[in-house]
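Exercise 7.
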Amino acid sequence: MVWFSNVGLGEPMEEGDWLFAETQSAYAAVCIVDGGYAWEDQTRRAKGKWLVCKNEYSPVILEVDQKSNYQSFKKFRAKVIGNALSFKNNILHYTGIYGDSFTFFADYSKAPQINGAPVNYAPSKAYDSPFLNADWDSGVVYIQKGKRSLILDFSSNGKKSIH
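Solution. The predicted structure, written as tokens, is:
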């Protein structure tokens, strides 16, 4: 199931095998790879709706990007639709909007792969970015932007420090 909010999100539009939506500053695309979809009865939900996979085990692809990376919604849709996608023998191959290659084994026979490498389920870092860093299972998170920094310590002897 995929949630589509009615707050801040435009009405989803279907194009090919994809559903597209936009917000004030981003575009989103969703593809139910196998078996199609239906919308849940909306009378139960006041602030959105659920897209329900007809095949509950279908892979689902979600692409989201900033509007500023595209000249128009049409260009974003064309980029997504133009990406390589195949699903045969329960193996999904997909090339994302930034050129990364994803392989997903829908029968769970292998771990998913990104650019040919299996997904690491036990990484050394929980977060590893220019602004947010944390070693896996350390309980300590380092946040930094420019000269400002914040250390959040959720370990058993934890304390919060602002610099």
